[in-house]
Amino acid sequence: VQLQASGGGLVQAGGSLTVACAASGRIFSSSFAGWFRQAPEKEREFVAGIRWGTGLTYYSDSVKGRFTISREKATNMVYLQMTNLKPEDTAVYYCAVDRDYRGSYLRQPEYDYWGQGTQVTVSS
């Protein structure tokens, strides 16, 4: 599976942006898709995730209520809709897929595939 992230850009604080991740190859119902981000001089962190089969979603506290993750099974697409963006959301956003989810969505080594990242910059 190869992942291609897109949709990043520059947006003003309070604005909205949607990033997308296209997956080539099959994603199974047992898989889990996640979005992570890495700000300058900070560690990469979990943002949001979704169980491919059930659609159950998970969010970090910092984005809960502002970001929405979704997936389209038919096209193997994963989206992260971001609203009410803040300057602290500025980061490179990565999509990732855990081929056989076992409940540890926060652990980055669990993910088998990673996209190349897309830059999101929020100006104040």
Could you explain how this protein is built, in words?
The strands form 2 sheets. Strands 2, 4, 5, 6, 9, 10 and 11 form a 7-stranded mixed sheet that branches. A 4-stranded antiparallel sheet has the order 1-3-8-7, with no helix packed on it. The mean pLDDT is 97. β7 and β8 form a beta hairpin. 0% of the residues lie in helices and 50% in strands. The protein has 124 residues and is an all-beta fold. It is built from no helices and 11 strands.
What is the strand and helix layout of this fold?
Layout: E1 2-6, E2 9-12, E3 17-24, E4 32-38, E5 45-51, E6 57-59, E7 67-72, E8 77-82, E9 91-98, E10 113-114, E11 118-123
Parallel strand pairs: 2-11
Antiparallel strand pairs: 1-3, 3-8, 4-5, 4-9, 5-6, 7-8, 9-10, 9-11
